[in-house]
Amino acid sequence: MPPRKPSSASKAPARTFKTKPGKPTSTDVAAAAGVSRSAVSFAFNNPQRISTATRERILAVAEELGYTPNTLGRMLQAGTTNSIGVLLPQGLAQILENPYYSRFLMGAGQVCDREGYTLLLTPPLQDSVLKAIPYAAVDGFIVCGLEIDRGEVAELDRRGIPFVLIDSDRHEGAPHVEVDDRGGARDVARYLLELGHRRLAVLSIGPRPAADPGHRGPLARRLAGITDALAEVGLTLDDVRVAEVPVTRADGYKATRELMSGEPPSAILALSDVLAYGAVDALQDLGVAVPDEVSVTGFDDLAESAWFRPRLTTVRQPIVTKGRIAADFLISAIRGEDQHPHQMLGTSLIVRDSATNPA
Amino acid sequence: MPPRKPSSASKAPARTFKTKPGKPTSTDVAAAAGVSRSAVSFAFNNPQRISTATRERILAVAEELGYTPNTLGRMLQAGTTNSIGVLLPQGLAQILENPYYSRFLMGAGQVCDREGYTLLLTPPLQDSVLKAIPYAAVDGFIVCGLEIDRGEVAELDRRGIPFVLIDSDRHEGAPHVEVDDRGGARDVARYLLELGHRRLAVLSIGPRPAADPGHRGPLARRLAGITDALAEVGLTLDDVRVAEVPVTRADGYKATRELMSGEPPSAILALSDVLAYGAVDALQDLGVAVPDEVSVTGFDDLAESAWFRPRLTTVRQPIVTKGRIAADFLISAIRGEDQHPHQMLGTSLIVRDSATNPA
DNA sequence: CTGAAAGCGCTTACAG
DNA sequence: CTGAAAGCGCTTACAG
Q1: What Pfam family is a match, any one (chains A, B) (predicted)?
Q2: Alpha carbon of A121: minimum distance to chain B alpha carbons (Å)
C-alpha cells in the first residue's frame, strides 16, 4: 500500500486520540460528522447553504460533543465585538459608588439596549488609563473624564478605534459631547453673589495632577465660570478658598469640617452634588443651620437632590442625555456614518432650599 | 535568474502595494523591519529574547507604521480576556436605574479593580438571556436574577465557562452566593403582624413568567418567608393582596395607588426598597400619613433608605458583600482554585420610622 | 449542494 | 540570538 500523504496521516490520529477533548472545536465536529469545517460553520450561520439532512446531522453531533462556536474566534474573524467600551478615569468601585456615573451609564445603556451592544466598563490598569486600552475587546470607546490627556487620544487614533470624548478636554477633530460647565458654574456663583455672599468656599474635584499646564477640562471650565462671576463684583479666585476633594460624600464631609475649622465661609459652592451632600452632613453635625447660617450649592442635579433635605440648590446638567448622545455618536462613528459629531449641552440653575442670603 | 519560490513571490508584492494599509499587522511590521513575525511579537512581549538593536528597530518601525498588536488576536491566542461578564436579567437602562444593581456592581467592581479585570455588562439579547451568552468575550460570568432557568445554566456548562449564580434558583454543583431571603421576609412580616397588622398588601417583584412550576428563586423564598409568618397567626398568603410590579419607583407608586383604591391595607410590605419609596410617594400624594395611617416596609436597605423620610423600616441584605464574594468566587473558578464554592449571607431587620401599629 | 484553501492577527514551542 | 512552522477557532469567497 502506498503511504498516505504524510501531513494528513500524521495529524488525524493525533487529534482522534486526544484524551480530554477540552472544548471541542469545529474541527472535532467536522471529523465526527464526516464533513468539512465549512459545513459545520454553515450549519450554525448559513443553514440554507447545506442540505437539511447534513445540517441536522452536524447539529446533532455538535450537541452530543457539546460544541459551541468559540466567541473570540468568531469575533476575530468578524472583526466586530458588538461591545462598547467605557474608558473610566477611576477604579470601578469609585465609579459605581458615584450616582453621577450610574446616570451617565444609564443613558449609554439605553442606546446599547436598542442597538444590541454590551457595555464594557474599563477602569485604569495600574493607575493608567492608557494601559487599559489594549485589553479591551470593543468596537469603540466612550472616554470619560479625561481632564488631562496622557497619550490616550493618540493611542486610540493609532489603533484606528472610534471613540467619543466626554467630560474631557477638547481635541480638534475628535467626536465629543460637551456640557456648558462654564455657564453653569457662572450662574450658580452669580446667584450666590447676588444673594450677598462674599465669603465663598469652593469644593472642587481633585486632586488634580501636579504639573498641569494645558488643563482645560470641565473642571477648569467650571472654575473659569466662577471666576467670571467673581469678576463682576470685583473679586478674583484668590479671594475664595478652594478645596480639592475626591468625589465622595465622605470626602465632602471631611473637607467641610476642615473648612469650618478656619474662618467659616458664608456659602459653600460644591462642584458636585455628592460633595454638597457631604457638606450639609458636616454642617448639620457641627450644629450649623443650612441655609440660615451657611448656604450650600451643588452641581449635577442628581435625582436625590430633590429629595435631599434641605432640597438642594444646584446646577442641572443633562446626564442621561449626555450618555445617550455619547453612545449614539459612538455607534455612528463605528458604522462610519458620521465621523466628527459634537454637541454642546446646556445647564440650568435649579433654585431650591439650600441657599439663601447670608446671616 | 531562477524564479523565487512562487508562494512568497506572489504574495509579498501584493501586500507591499496595498494602497490603504488599513490597520498594519505584525506581518507588515516584520516585512518593513526585515524580520520574522515572531521577532515582532518578541519585541513587544518578550524583549529579552531578541537583541536590543533588533528590538529598537522593530519598535521604531512599529511606531512609524502605527502598529499596535490586535487585542482580539492576542486574546484568541492567550485564551483569556481579563474580563468578567455580568449576565443581567433586564436591559441596561433598567439595571442601571436600579440602585440595588449599582451597589452590587460596586462590590464586584472592587474585586475587578484589585485583580485587574474589566467588567462586561451583558443584557438580554432580543429579550433572551440565553442568546446573549455567545456574544460576550469573557473569562466567566456572574449570572444575576435567574429566577427561572431557561437553559442558561446548561449553555454555560457546555461552553465550559466558569460562572456563579446570584439572586437565582439554586443549581446543584454550581457556585452561588445566596441570601437568606426567606428568613428576612419572615422577620419583616412577623414584625408587621406583631405590630397588629392584619390587612397586609405585598408589593412583589414581577411580572413573573406565566408558566412557572419549578420556581424557587429569591422571590419565591421571600414569599415563603411571608407565608411562614402568616401561618404563625393562622393566616395564609390568600389572606393578603399581592401585586407584582417591575422594580421602579414609578411602578411602586402606580401599584400603590391601585391598591389604595380598593379596600386599603393597613400595611404595605414591599419586596424592594425602591418599590417602598414609590409606595410612600403615592400615599403622601393621597394624603395618607405614613406610618400613622398606613405602614410601609422595604427590602434591601439601600443607602438612601436611611435618608428617606420617613426613615424606612426594611430588611438589610449585604449587597456590596454579595457582589464582592460573587466576583471572588468567579475568579477562583476561573483560576481553577475552587470549583464549587457557595455562601449563604444573612439578613437583618432594620427598624426605623415607616411602620407602626395600625391606626 | 459541498469541500479545500486562505485568511482574520497573534504567540509560542521548536529548530537552528 | 533568530526564524519557519504550527496553532489559537472561526468564516467566507472560490471551485467544483
Answers
A1: LacI
A2: 5
B212: confidence class by pLDDT, cuts 50, 70, 90: low
- Match 465622595 to its residue by C-alpha cell: A248
Q: Does B71 sit within 8 Å of A75, measured CB to CB? A: no
Given a cut of 90, whether residue A22 has pLDDT beyond it is: no
B181-317 is classed CATH 3.40.50.2300: yes
Compute the average pLDDT of residues A136-159: 93
Nucleotide nearest to A49 (CA to C1'): C1
Q: Which CATH number fits domain B81-179+319-345: 3.40.50.970, 3.40.50.10190, 3.30.70.270, 3.40.50.2300?
A: 3.40.50.2300
Is B121 close to A116, i.e. CB distance below 8 A? Answer: no
CB-closest option in B110, B116, B135 to A71:
B135
Mean pLDDT value across residues A172-194: 96
Q: Which residues of B touch A120 (CB under 8 A)?
A: 83, 118-121
Q: What sign does the dihedral A82-A88-A90-A96 (CA atoms) show?
A: negative
CB-facing half-sphere around the CA of A174: CA atoms within 13 A = 26
Nucleotides, chain D, CB distance < 7 Å? 1-13
Its CATH architecture, for the domain B6-69, is Orthogonal Bundle (1.10)
- Could A91 and B113 be called an inter-chain contact, meaning their C-beta atoms sit closer than 8 Å? yes
| pLDDT above 70 coverage of chain A, percent | 92
Q: Residue A349 pairs with which residues in a beta bridge?
A: A315
Q: Do the domains spanning A6-69 and A181-318 agree at the CATH topology level? A: no
Look up the CATH superfamily of A181-318.
Response regulator (3.40.50.2300)
A224 touches A264 (CB < 8 A): no
Average pLDDT over residues A125-131: 95
Give the C-alpha distances (Å, rounded to integers) separating A161 from A71, A144, A315, B94: 20, 16, 34, 28
Give how far A156 is from chain B: nearest CA, Å: 10
What mean pLDDT is predicted for residues A303-315?
A: 92
